[in-house]
């Protein structure tokens, strides 16, 4: 279980490329460094009382929790300036009161942890390429994506095609296509010549 302290908590809102998402940054830790948890539905948030409480706001459609921030995605036409004060007050009060963030240890994801998902039946060459891709995602791509309130994880590599999973603010972001193709795909092609394309799982580009 994540421990909270009783020190005063500051929370500030930070915009990101997805106009439907807002990143709320805290001066306290919500989750261990390097991990993140994405809750696309209230049902998926069964292990997080904090996320469940956020879903009680009828305009909240997705919750993404990382080390010191939570990204909230809305499904309402109401603009963020009208919603931020309410969410910021709730987050500050909840964390200051020592409310539980998770029940037990959450199953977190990161580009690095995905290395365990590399299939054992891949050829030695494909396994090596997969590991190179994972290292690049973890060291170069993920920090930038996290800065925007989201996360990216490696899913697979096959015949030149890298499949990734976008989470948090990156999921459903209008600029995700540009980020994926102009940014991530170009980087991986340059650093790993065997890569010919990068696609996002469940995202229609």
From TrEMBL:
Protein name: NifU family protein
GO molecular function, one term: iron-sulfur cluster binding
SUPFAM superfamilies in the record: Fe-S cluster assembly (FSCA) domain-like, Hypothetical protein SAV1430
Family to which the UniProt record says this protein belongs: Belongs to the NifU family.
Domain annotation Scaffold protein Nfu/NifU N-terminal: ranges: 11-98
GO biological process terms on file: iron-sulfur cluster assembly
Gene3D superfamilies according to UniProt: Fe-S cluster assembly (FSCA), Scaffold protein Nfu/NifU, N-terminal domain
PANTHER family the record matches: IRON-SULFUR CLUSTER SCAFFOLD PROTEIN NFU-RELATED, NFU1 IRON-SULFUR CLUSTER SCAFFOLD HOMOLOG, MITOCHONDRIAL
